[in-house]
Prior knowledge:
- By secondary structure, the chain is mainly α.
- The chain has a single domain, classed as Growth Hormone, Chain: A, CATH 1.20.1250.
- It contains 15 helices and two strands.
- Strands 1-2 form a two-stranded parallel ribbon.
- Helix 6 runs antiparallel to helix 9.
- The radius of gyration is 21 Å and the shape is globular.
Amino acid sequence: MARFVRLEDAKDLPLWRRPVALLFLMSLAMPIAFNTWSALLNNFVIEAADFDGGDIGLLHTVREIPGFFAVGVIAIIIFMREQVLGLISLVLLGAATAVTAWFPSMAGILTITMLSSVGFHYYETVNQSLQLQWLSKKEAPRVLGWLLAAGSAATLVAYLAIMALWDSLGLTYNTVYMIGGGVTVLIAVFAMAAYPQFEAPNPQIKRMVLRRRYWLYYALQFMSGARRQIFVVFAGFMMVEKFGYEVHEITTLYLINLVVNIAVAPLLGRAVGYFGERRTLGFEYIGLVTVFLCYGGVYYLGWGVVVAATLYVIDHIFFGLALALKTYFQKIADPGDIAPTAAVAFTINHIAAVFLPVLLGLLWLASPAAVFFLAAGMAGVSFVLAMMIPRHPEKGNETIFARYVAAPAE
Length: 410
């Protein structure tokens, strides 16, 4: 029978059984399956099903559909605790990843991608909610940075194994997917058995919540989702299609990203706590404008593979600052709004993701540079929105316009 422990009483538990420890364990589990899938994806789909830019766009559109329906989490948590749902979602993600190579066809790849995506997006929705409920506003930026670093460290181990053993042991896609997905399943099952159910002090509203005073957060989430798709879908695909990167080479690039993230992510968390959400998000978006314009230059001006790989690493660093969006919402939100708004925000974040990859996949066939120039424009819009965040956001002071007009309650 499940044991229930109030959050304020959890400090009496052994360190490894406290809520923060569970957040770290889940942060280790998810990237092992997801990033193993991602590291092999571009090579696997090209070799197994002869994907081109249009096909990869379609695949990522299918992958993002469950994110668009993340609002369904609200209905599920009426009957199931968020902590349980998060761990079950991890099991689904891991199991689907494990059998990916069993379906080497367009239809098979799309189907298994849909299943793994349900696990990924429902986990991410619940995980964001639990982070903001279980962490105080003061400690959240710092701990979120460490959680990001922990996920990078877990992925680092997986990528090192792929890079070192892929050629020497003649590993197959099936072997790597089975191991990566299986480890995630085992960690999730262990967490179900080893941890009590934690009771947060503020009961969550179990219905859809849309508040006018959260409008800037919604807008930033929408632009973040649209912009992220271009990086996730096309940056790695460019390295394989244009520069002929093989599995061990693309994994080496990911490996460099992880080492950098392990070192930098805690600093990013501290930066958000010190400089505030407005400045750090503004810095991120200006950086992304520059990076995406340079990506376009790789195609338009013929810059080489070293420039492209460097941009890829810098791109990853800037995206780490997105944790400031979480802390911005934590500061302006009603405590009971966190779970339903996390679900709504994930749906908003994925509105563009449902149609953008396939449309940009078609644009990619005509002009890869145009795809990245479009992303630079999106990052510019995000910068304008970020400048509307006040220096010290809180309930009633959600945007800079609150100085002149009282923010509506709903």
